[in-house]
Amino acid sequence: MSSLEVVAAPRRVRSRRGEGDKLREDILEAAEKMLIATNDQSLLSVRAIANAVGVTPPSIYLHFSDRNELLFAVCERQSEHIEKAMEAAAAGISDPWERLRRRGRAYLEWGLANPEHYRILMMSHSDATPDRFTDERLAGMAGLQAVASDLSVGVEVGHFAPVGDTLGVSELLWMVVHGMVSLLICKPEFPFGAPEDVFEAMFELLYEGISARSERSEAG
Length: 220
Hints:
The chain is an all-alpha fold. The protein has 2 domains: about 1-65, Orthogonal Bundle (Arc Repressor Mutant, subunit A), CATH 1.10.10; about 80-220, Tetracycline Repressor, domain 2. The chain is about 70% helix and about 0% strand. The protein has 10 helices and no strands.
């Protein structure tokens, strides 16, 4: 079976009153499986998803205004995994820079393991992004507050030079890691090297930059 072919489920019996949430969940699960199987969001048509669930396309629109909203709803459920993965990676680690490194590595690994989810959540056009994905929500997905906290601890214990706006610096770190994830997803043919090696080299440069600023500050 090619990636374009979808096995139609038997025609679903019409849901009884109060069972709409079950149908919505089935739609999300079917779309999720198709997204993972094809690794190409362009192949997820409303008709294909409806066939997989065993309903007609109008049934999809009872729960989602359009295909775009459905795709974001699928990825929204997975977005919690980014935060959980970063928290789990940093758990039990006392060194603030190691915590930052492990958070970044977990973010990278999740993005590369879920490229289409990442494209939809972090690389979609702004006019295609639902209003509920506010700046605060995106910041939460990226774990910016936790990163800012690690930076603050690093400054307090003397590992980092005073950085001023720790949240602003955490946004810069996010931009760096996001750029790496985006390039590895969009340009897989480019000989960047093994992702884990590139990541370590990148973070080593970041650490050296902070150390250099710290030394200049002490020298001054």
